[in-house]
Each structure stands twice: as C-alpha cells, then as structure tokens.
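ok here's the first one, seq then struct tokens
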Amino acid sequence: MISANAGYQGYREKSLHLVRREIMQSPFIAVAFPAYLALHPAPDVPADLAKHQCLFATTLTGSNDWILTRNGESQIVKVPKSLEVNDSDLLLQNAKMGAGIAYLPTFIVESEILDGRLIPLLDEFETSIWSLNLYYHPVTNSSAMANHFKEHLLT
C-alpha cells in the first residue's frame, strides 16, 4: 500500500501492523500570489489567516487545520473554508490566479517561489510534514512479487 499523509510534531500514526518505509517527505508552506497580497496584507501570525481566503486540499491535510509551530509551541489553525479541493494541482492553479493563500507541500511550489509567481508566508513557522509512505507486510508474510516491487520502489 502506498499512502500520503500530513503529520506534525506530536502526531501519532495508527498501528497497521505493517512495515512503513518513507519514500519522500516535504514540509508544507503557505503561499500567495503577489496580486492577492497587494489587496490583502500578508498574515504576520497564524491567527491572521482567519481574515484571508484560504485554499487547501483535504487529500493533503485531512482537514482545514493548518499546524504552525514556532519556538516549540504548535498552533492548530482552523482556516476558513474558502476553497476546498481534492487535487493539489488545482489548488496550485487557484493560488497562482490569486484566489487566496494556499497550504501545499514545498516540493509542489518550489519553482513558483523561485521565479516570484508565489510568495512564501509565515516562513518563520514550522509546518506539518507531507510524507509519501510505502506500507508492506514483513518479508516472511509477503509474496516474492510484492517483495520485488517493494525493492524496486525503495532503490
């Protein structure tokens, strides 16, 4: 099984009695289009997000909760449900059109940040971590084909 999820410090994953191997991870980042920020002042603290159009994908975060941590203190912010989608590309496109502040894994928005199409926000805060994981039965309980596939993914 391959699964992606968002976690944060203190997050406890349910025991599935399977071996979990992380394939990749990326912290989330809040971003906005420069034209959106020209009309709406950038948030200084997580609570300021309540004043903004917030864009999120429940398939990435599981809810409209954004977890932001500074100096070891985590804040769980329930952002307004301005735009909820189930596709990270659709979320990215809406952010680039100025629809609001998006919360996406960094690897999805890196190039847009580097070329100035999106501006990172609240970057002094740590965020949840998006991770892609492979779950599998221990070698003694799985087929040779499943073991071969697992080895292919992990190399």
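and now the second one, same deal
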Amino acid sequence: MREVDLDVFASELAQGAFAIDVREPDEYRAGHVPGVRTAPLSELGARLPALPADRPVYVICASGNRSAWAAEHLEAVGIRAVSVAGGTSGWAHTGRPIMRGTDARTA
C-alpha cells in the first residue's frame, strides 16, 4: 500500500484523481475534501464494483488510520490504492477548502 502526503494528494486531485472518503456519512457531511466521493468503510465491500481498475484510488478519512486500513484491503482485492496521510483534518488545518453537506458523489 502506498501513502502520500496532502501536497501530493492535492496535486493529484487537481489532475482528476479518483478519490474516496471512507468516513461514515455524518462525518462526510460535516466536512469533506471537494471532489472526493463518499464510500463509507462500513459499505466498502459493496462499493468495489464502482472503483476504477485502471488507475489508483486515493483513500482519505479523518486522520489517515482508516484510509490506511481501507487501502490495504483494497490492495488485497487487486485495486491500486493510495492512502492519504493526514486525512481530512490535516487538509482543513492547511487552509484548503472543505465542502459541507453532500455533493451526491458516491463511489
């Protein structure tokens, strides 16, 4: 499993990277990185068919713990996954934008 810092993630996201947030729906609605799809850890298995097989899937959570776990499990089923160190809280602390509510983008 690969892990990237927030600067690399921001650059990849700006270039159209596919990213999922594995936090639960209430956490996602409270504040998420714009453009990141919701795929709660509790539903990750059911979301596998929606994940791309031809490019990396960036995985973010609150701080990086759940995303690391999810990325390891995605790798185990053949999906190239990259965990985002620092998570959404780190993203917000660097002054990057946070979207509240839902943008209806699910994985």
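notes on #2: The longest strand covers residues 18-21. The helical segments are 6-14, 25-30, 44-47, 65-76, 87-93.
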